[in-house]
Specification:
alpha+beta, 4 helices, 3 strands, globular
Length: 74
Amino acid sequence: MDFVTVYRTFNLAEAQVVRSRLEAAEMHPSVVNDNAAVSLDGYTLAAGGVFIEVPEAEAASARELIEDSEHPTA
């Protein structure tokens, strides 16, 4: 199964919130480089950030959910 990056951040807490939202939508996210965020100060930047990946088949739905969460309508 191929995974696709759908979100990148330099904030571990933000990554965990996005992961949680995707799981609540019954998707299968994984967090990549989360250990970098807690191991050494500044290492997250060197690693390129913390990534949220999902199976390729879920990528479009995941991106849509993330965009809707970032720009909610009233």
